[in-house]
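Cross-check.
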Amino acid sequence: MNKQQTAVEWLLNEIWEHIEWKPQLEKRAIVMKFEQAKEMEKEQAIKLYYEYDLYLMMNESSVMTFGQFYKQTYGDDKQ
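Predicted model, tokenized:
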């Protein structure tokens, strides 16, 4: 099974490629924040899955797609 990259991991890799780091301590602090963000992203995905599953069980007659449910929950980031 191939491990896929999360959005947070992608962002961290992009930042590493485009920023020159001065003090090593600053880099470690940022890595810690990204690790925290990855855990939050994971918890958010799990919560969304369970909320959608519950929604499906309670609304059998008219069901939104997962994409519609996601937009209702988090909004549409297109501006």
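The mean pLDDT is 81. The helical segments are 7-18, 24-58, 66-74. Passed to J.P. for a second look.
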